[in-house]
Amino acid sequence: MSVATARHFAPKPGNKAVSLFRDKSQKYKQQKKPQSKPIPWVDVSDEEPRHKDDKNPLKRNGAVVNGQEQGQRRKKPRHSSNGEQKDSSSGAGPSSASKASAIQQQRKDLPIAQGREALIEEIRANDVTVLLGETEVPQYLLESGLAGNGMIAVTQPRRVAATSLAARVSQEQGTPLGQRVGYSVRFDEKSTSNTRIKYMTDGMIVRELLSDPMLSKYSVVVVDEAHERTLRTDLLLANLKEIINKRNEPSGKGKGNPDPLKIVVMSATLDAEKFSKFFHNAKVIYVKGRQHPVKIYHTAEHQLDYVDSAMRTFFQIHTDQPPGDVLIFLPGQEDIESLQASIDLFARQLPVDKPNVLTCAMFAAQAQNKNAQAFTPAPPNTRKCILATNIAETSITIPGVKYVIDTGKCKEKQFLARTGGGGLDTLLTRDITQSSAMQRTGRAGREGMGVCFRLYPESAFKAMAPSLEPEILRTSLTSSILQLKCLKQDIRELDLMDSPDDDSVLSAFKTLWILGALDQRQQLTDSGRKMAAFPVDPVYACAIVASAGYHCTSEVVDIISVISASSKLFVDISDQRDAVAEQRRKFRHPSGDHMTILNVLRAYEETSAGEGQSGRKDKAARKEWCRKHFLNERTLIEAQDIRSQLRTVCERENINWMESALKKTAGAAAGSVNADGVIYEEDPILKALGHGLCGNAAFLQPDGTYKQIMGPSTVKIHPSSVLCDKKMPAIIYDELVFTNHIYARGVSAIPKSFFATHEPFKQKSA
DNA sequence: GAGCACTGC
C-alpha cells in the first residue's frame, strides 16, 4: 500500500460554490465551502485481474478482491473422480472467514478456454453446480449434448439481460433469434418448439411453475445472477431443490434417472458458499474472468461531504490524469443536480490549456433522451463526466469510461412490515455493499485499464455488508404468499435460503385477509383465486374484482395499468418547472391522482385519433404530444400492454371489462375527455379502488395532516400529488414512502361515508 | 413542497 501522490484541485477561495449547495437538505447543513485540503488516497489494488468481455456488456464482472492474499486451500476443479468431488465441494470455503481470497486464488485455476471440457464434466457429474465468474456455459451445455432432448432455461433478473443475451448467443450460434436460441419475458416471447436454449426472466419461470410444477420441459436450469437474490430467484431456488428431490432418483436405488434435472447456479464470488450449502454442499467451480485491471484508491479518511469530495476528485482526475471519461456514482437526483451545477461552474474557470468538461446526468426519472446523452462520445478535447445513480451500476454500460468515482452511497427502498396490515416503504440514503462497490469499480475496466476512486477508507469498505439483503427479507410478501397459496405452498414451510420475518408474513396474511383473498383460517377464497390471476399487486387485483360490482371495470383497469407500469408517467425536467406544472394542470381531476391518470391515458389515446389511416403519422403525433405535455410515452405504451393483459384475464375470470361508468351527454365527441359534455361518474371508480386500498386510507385532522385509519402514522400528501395542500375529509393512497416525512403517494379523495358502509372495513378494522 | 433500481399469469 502506498499513499498516492495525486494533487488536489483547490477552488479559488471566495467564489460562489457555496451557494450551489442547498442547505435546506440535511446533509449539507454542515457544509461551509469546498474544503481546500487535498484528499489523500491509499492504493489498495496493485494488479487485480478483471474481466474483459466486450461482447457481453450486461453481465456482471468478476470480483475485485481487496488486496491481501492468504494461503487457502486450493482446489483444482479439473477432472476428478466422483468420490473426490463430494469432498472437494465443501472445500469451497470450509467455514472460512476470508474465503474471498481463496476464491480469488482458485479463480485463476480454470481459465475457461482450457477448462471447458472440465467444466462440462463437472456439471455432468453433479445435480447442482455453483459457478463463479462469467462463462458461456449455456452454449457449452448445448454443444456438449448434455441437455439431451430437453430445453436449457437460463434465468435472469432483468428482461433486457434475457433478451440481449438471447440475441447475442443466437448470433454466435448462427441461427435466427427464436429458433435454436430464444427468450421469454413478459409481453414478449421468441421461442418455438425447436428452441433449445431459452433465456427468461426469473419471474417468468416462477410463473411456469404454476402450470408445470416439475418444470418437465427443462433438463437444465441455469440460474444466472443468483447473488442478486431477487424474491423470484429465491422462490425458484426453493422449488428447484424440491424438484431435483423428485426428478433425480439417487443412483444405486436401481431406478436410474429417466428424467433428471441439472441445476447450474451462477453467482458472484461472495455468496458461493451459501448457495453450495443450500444445495447440500454442491460443487463450486471458479472460472477465471477476463477484464482489464482496475486500480483502486480509497481515501485515507472518512469524507464528511461526499458531493464535495466527488467534485474535488473529479478535478484531480481532470487535471492530472490522461484522457478518459469519468463516471460518478451518487445516491439520487438531488445530489446529481447539485454536483453537476458545481462541476459546470468550476469547469468554466479551468486554465485554457486544460480540456473541456461535458457533464451528463443519468437517473431513471429523467427523460430518456437526456439519459441517452451519456452515450454520445465527447467532442474532441473534452472529458465527459457522467453523474449517475445505480442505473449505471448494472443495467446500463457506458462506453468510454476509464475512471469511476464511487461515493459509496445509494438509496434503497426498504419495506417495514406492520402486523396491523399494510406497511411502509422507506427510501433513505445508505452505504452500499461490498459487491455493489466491486460492481461500480468494474465499470472502469470495460475497455481498458481503469482507475476507481472510492470516497471512503478501506476500513469502511471492509465494514460494508458483503451484499444486499435478499429481497425476500425487505419487501412486501402479499403477492408471493397469494401465489404460493395457489400452489398449495406455505411460505413458512418452504425450504428457502432465507426465511422472511414473522412480522412480514403476518402483515401479508392480514392484508390478504382484509382484501378478502384469504379467510380467517388463511384459506384461499374464491375471490382470492381470482385476484391471483391478475399480474398486479393484490391490492389492485382486489380493486379490479370489486369493480365488477360497480360496473366500472373499464376505468379501473385503465388506471391500474398505468400505476402498474414500471416507469413514471410524469417526466421531471427541473429547469422547466413552471411549464411542467402548467401542462399538468390540464389533466388535473378534482378527486385526485387516480382520475388524473385516467384523464392522461384517455387524452393520450385521443391524440391523432381520426387523423386518417397513417399509423406512422399517429405515432409521431403521439410522441410529440407526450413531449409537449412532459409525459413518459414509454409508461403509456407499457400501460397499454398491461391493460390488454388484464383484459384477457378479466375475460377468463368472467369480468366484463367493457363496462364503463363514463357517461356521455348527447352531442359530445366520443371519448373526448375534457370536452364539456363528458362527465365521469368517479364515485364508483373510487369506491372500487377503495376496496383494494381500504388499508391505505387516512382521515383529515384539524392540523391539516392525515391520520391513518388502520395504522398509527400521521402522513402528508406527497408534493407530486394533485391533492397536495388540499384538505379532503378522507383519502386513499397507493403507497406510503418515508423520506423526510411519511408521504402518501397516488392519492384520491373518497367519501368518508365509504368507510362507514364498506363491509370489509366495518368488520375487519374492529 | 419532492422522485434508488429492477420485475410478473
From TrEMBL:
Biased composition annotated in UniProt, kind: Basic and acidic residues: 47-57
GO cellular component, one term: ribonucleoprotein complex
Principal EC category: hydrolase
Pfam family membership, one: WHD_HA2
Biased composition (Low complexity): 88-105
Keyword check for Oxidoreductase: no
Thylakoid found in the keyword field: no
SMART domains in the cross-refs: DEXDc (SM00487), HA2 (SM00847), HELICc (SM00490)
Alphabetized InterPro entries for the sequence: DEAD-box_helicase_OB_fold (IPR011709), DNA/RNA_helicase_DEAH_CS (IPR002464), HA2_WH (IPR048333), Helicase-assoc_dom (IPR007502), Helicase_ATP-bd (IPR014001), Helicase_C-like (IPR001650), P-loop_NTPase (IPR027417)
Region (Disordered): 1-106
Keywords associated with the record: ATP-binding, Helicase, Hydrolase, Nucleotide-binding
Documented EC number(s): 3.6.4.13
Gene Ontology biological-process entries: positive regulation of transcription by RNA polymerase I
Catalytic activity as recorded in UniProt: ATP + H2O = ADP + phosphate + H(+)
GO molecular function, one term: RNA helicase activity
Domain Helicase ATP-binding intervals: 120-288
Domain Helicase C-terminal: 310-488
Protein name: RNA helicase
Provenance organism: Coprinellus micaceus
